[in-house]
Amino acid sequence: MMKAVLWEVSRLACVRFLVERRGAAVNQRDRVRGWTPLLRCAHMAHHTHAPFLGVFSYLLAAGADPALTGAGLSDPTTGDPGPQMTVLEAAVQQGRGWQAGQVRARLAALIQQHDHVSKQPATTYTGGDIGPLAAKVVAAWERRAPVVPPANWRPPPPAGYADAQGMRLAAREPWRPAGQSDGSCTLRAMTEAELRRQSQLAAEASARPPVQAH
């Protein structure tokens, strides 16, 4: 779907391929917020790591309608959809490396430049969350026998010391248990209680019979 390309890749060549070779609808709304590819592109236009402005201009030239609106972010307390947003309202006020209002001014200039282009009809996506090929892969995976650990598998030690499987997000407070995130990457030695708990888990795992795949 076009919104995925715009969000994750935003390569102009990909968008051109979808529109020109695959007939992708440039005014297709998504099912959740009613956003079109143009709205999503405007929302990301301040990022310079990918050609969002170039994609925005191409979509307009292909008949994307800047008059179509989409719902804003949902209210976290009620879950109700946010108010309708225009293309320019979806863009940021400033953005890193931009002067205030500059992003929206660039988008407005592109909209005016393509004002003469006939607009394509608006549609709403009603298909599945994944394509048919991906659905076949998922179905094939679900038909496989369960994946079980080998008989000699042991649970990994809990995070909190240097030889753990992952870096512990160490606590700033000395009383906080190991493994609870606070944004730090400091390592510490295991406590006696943690060492005893690790030994207990290893013993329990050794006592369990191996699980056989069916």
What does this structure look like?
The chain is mostly helical and 214 residues long. It folds into two domains: 2-138, Alpha Horseshoe (Serine Threonine Protein Phosphatase 5, Tetratricopeptide repeat); 149-214, no CATH class. The protein has eight helices and four strands. The protein has helices at residues 2-8, 12-20, 37-43, 52-61, 87-90, 102-113, 132-143, 192-207; strands at 28-29, 70-71, 84-85, 123-124. The chain has a two-stranded parallel ribbon with strand order 1-4. Strands 2-3 form a two-stranded antiparallel ribbon. Helix 3 runs antiparallel to helix 4. The longest helix is centred in the C-terminal third of the chain and has 16 residues, at 192-207. It is elongated. The protein starts with a helix and ends in a 7-residue tail after the last helix. 20% of the residues are buried. The model is unreliable at 159-186 (pLDDT under 50).
Strand-helix topology:
Blueprint lengths: L1 H7 L3 H9 L7 E2 L7 H7 L8 H10 L8 E2 L12 E2 L1 H4 L11 H12 L9 E2 L7 H12 L48 H16 L7
Helix pairs in contact: 3-4, 4-6
Helix count, DSSP H or I runs of 4 or more residues: 8
What would you report as the Rg, rounded to the nearest angstrom? 26 Å
Q: Pick out the low-confidence regions.
A: 159-186
Mean pLDDT: 77
Cross-sheet strand order for the largest sheet: 1-4
**Level of helix content?**
25-40%
Task: Name the CATH architecture of the largest domain.
Answer: Alpha Horseshoe
CATH topology (level 3) name of the largest domain: Serine Threonine Protein Phosphatase 5, Tetratricopeptide repeat
Spatial separation of the terminal alpha carbons? 38 Å
User: What class, by secondary structure content?
Assistant: mainly alpha
Please report the total strand number as a whole number: 4
| Content of β-strand | under 5%
The succession of helices and strands, N to C, reads HHEHHEEHHEHH
The CATH class assignment of the largest domain is: Mainly Alpha
Q: What best-fitting shape do the alpha-carbon axes yield? A: elongated
* Total domain modules: 2
Which sheet architecture does the biggest sheet show?
Answer: 2 strands, parallel
